[in-house]
């Protein structure tokens, strides 16, 4: 792929991590729904027998947590709220109408994406804590029945909330043209970046121009020698 007029938006390691999270999340969500709603136990067949589902579900959840913590380390600094996010939120009606406010400087992620990021990180933390409390084989014996029941409630609410957020995330990725391709290849066009994330685009262009100036200075220095 010719990346001359493209900007790297998502590094390879982050893309791989994202793919693994998606696959594991689907397996974990389906198996969890089959455990919570016996009437749709067929969902759990993706992992095998009901006994195997019960065994594998918590392990998959723990792996997702670890992967998301890796994503947190890689992406948290891009998701810190700032004043421009307030302006973006005030123009939410334009965003919903599909008219991204180009007059508002938007960093690598807009306010909606930042909100989604921190919601996902918060919900996966709740799922981990409550899941460990519920994990009969290893931890449940250390907690009272009442605590386990509370954990089951919050685990269920957090799980449903996370599933809905992920569905919304997928919908938005499809809705914003170029997002899916950007996640697959890692690159987005300069025009896409300028339109959807103008502040980040200017930062990336500054890096490109600075790299070109440094290269020219190095070449000039070599010629003089």
| CATH-defined architecture of the domain at 10-78 and 109-188 | Up-down Bundle
Determine the CATH superfamily of the domain at 10-78 and 109-188.
Transmembrane di-heme cytochromes, Chain C
Provide the spatial order of strands within the biggest beta sheet: 1-2
Report the biggest beta sheet as strand number plus sense, adding barrel if it closes.
Answer: 2 strands, antiparallel
Mean pLDDT, all residues: 88
Overall, the morphology is elongated
Number of strands: 2
Radius of gyration computed on alpha carbons: 22 Å
Helix and strand element order: EHHHHHHHEHH
How large a portion of the residues is in β-strands, by DSSP E?
under 5%
Q: How many individual helices? A: 9
Distance between the termini: 37 Å
What is the CATH T-level topology of the domain at 10-78 and 109-188? Fumarate Reductase Cytochrome B subunit
Instruction: Briefly note the structural class of the backbone.
Output: mainly alpha
Helix content range: over 70%
Describe this structure in words.
By secondary structure, the protein is mainly α. The protein has a domain at 10-78 and 109-188: Fumarate Reductase Cytochrome B subunit. The chain has helices at residues 12-36, 50-75, 83-90, 92-96, 111-134, 145-175, 179-185, 190-196, 198-224; strands spanning 6-8, 187-189. The chain has a two-stranded antiparallel ribbon with strand order 1-2. The mean pLDDT is 88.
What are the key terms here?
225 residues, mainly alpha, Fumarate Reductase Cytochrome B subunit, two-stranded antiparallel ribbon, 9 helices, 2 strands, 3% strand
């Amino acid at each position: 792929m010719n990346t001359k007029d493209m900007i790297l938006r998502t590094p390879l390691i982050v893309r791989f991590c994202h793919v693994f999270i998606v696959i594991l999340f689907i397996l974990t969500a389906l198996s969890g729904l089959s455990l919570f709603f016996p009437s749709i136990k067929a969902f759990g067949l993706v992992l095998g027998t009901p006994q195997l589902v019960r065994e594998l579900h918590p392990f998959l959840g723990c792996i997702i947590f670890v992967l998301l913590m890796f994503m947190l380390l890689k992406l948290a600094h891009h998701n810190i709220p700032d004043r421009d996010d307030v302006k973006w939120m005030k123009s939410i009606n334009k965003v919903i109408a599909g008219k991204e406010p180009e007059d508002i400087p938007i960093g690598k992620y807009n306010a909606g994406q930042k909100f989604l990021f921190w919601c996902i990180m918060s919900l996966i933390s709740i799922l981990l804590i409550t899941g460990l409390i519920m994990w009969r084989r290893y931890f449940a014996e250390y907690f009272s029945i009442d605590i386990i029941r509370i954990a089951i409630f919050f685990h269920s609410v957090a799980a449903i909330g996370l599933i809905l957020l992920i569905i919304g995330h997928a919908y938005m990725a499809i809705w914003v043209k170029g997002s899916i391709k950007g996640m697959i290849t890692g690159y987005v066009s300069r025009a896409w970046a300028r339109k959807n994330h103008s502040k980040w685009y200017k930062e990336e262009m500054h890096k490109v121009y600075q790299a070109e100036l440094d290269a020219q200075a190095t070449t000039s220095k070599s010629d003089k020698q």
